[in-house]
Amino acid sequence: MKKIKGKKLKTIILDTAIGFGVFALCTGVCYLLDYFNVSDLNFIIIYVLGVLITAVCTKGYLYSSFFSLLSVFGYNFLFTAPRYTFHFNDEIYMITFILMFCVSIIISTITFQLKKRMRQINDLNMEKAALQRDTEKEKLKATLLRSISHDLRTPLTTMKNGAEVIKNSSAIEESDKNEILDDIIAKADWLVRLVENLLSLSRIDRENLTVKKTPEALEEIVPQAVRNIRGIIGNRKIHYDMPKELTLVAMDATLTIQAIANILINAVKHTNDNGNIWIRVWNTGKNTVFRISNDGDPIREQDLPHIFEMYYTTSDGNRGKDIGLGLAICKLIISAHGGQISARNTRDGRVLFEFNYPTEADNG
Q1: pTM over 0.90
Q2: How far apart are CA 285 and CA 2, in angstroms?
Q3: In degrees rounded to 5, what are phi and psi of residue 277?
Q4: What are the tens digits of pLDDT across the range 49-67?
């Protein structure tokens, strides 16, 4: 309540200052014209223009109405003979004053009504935009639910069937049993990663695209992301190039680990079992840069502009088991931290993902 009253008082003071400021400006212009012996009847136009400016710049009808009255008395007092009195020698000035006041009031009223109408139109447009955003959100939720429902069905069915085979077939070969169990574990890992991505979405304020950041040590964040996907790395070699000194970066640790893990999962899927994955992190002074590259198959040129889009899956079948959340969530997480992410194919045959976080000073 106090804030509302204080804001209202501030508005009143500001609008009053605008009114008197415009009056002073108009009066100054009239004195300048008077110095060059311009007819004082032209001063009426100056003051009427001041009424229009006041009506446009202030938030209430009262200020422009008051300016209209002030203009009449100011014109009488300052520029009609005898000057610096409210008397006048020529009675024709009485008609001039009345007409000046009426015109000023009419202009003030019309301007006020136009401003009111424009505010109503603006409010309607804002409501329309809000409804459109809500509709898009509902469509997004519906699409997400359909995608998740569709993609959950296959691994859950595989896990269920595999478990039933092991349970009901007492004479199953050990090798077949291990193969089924490995398949169940792989499907369970996929489900865990999907749930982690969905949880990451829920942690981000989608309206303002913000996260809660605290200083975190890179020496802990990057290895933790690698440990989280250790089960799918296989024989691939991870090469680190990290700052030797302790490096603290303002971030949401859980979301950052998820973003790095998603990029690594993408690298693993496109790298041979005996391939290499490189992780390099350095500080430029303004940004902390994360670079993850692998020596796998290049990203097709037609896919590069779209790989960070929600639900986008490539048509080459390499991401057929994905619903297009991983890299899209990476971009969302990194954008929420004030950073940027990009991907490209390098000349030496690597696929390179790079993103940055602003330093604390730039990050606010």
Answers
A1: no
A2: 43
A3: -130, 130
A4: 988 888 888 877 788 888 8
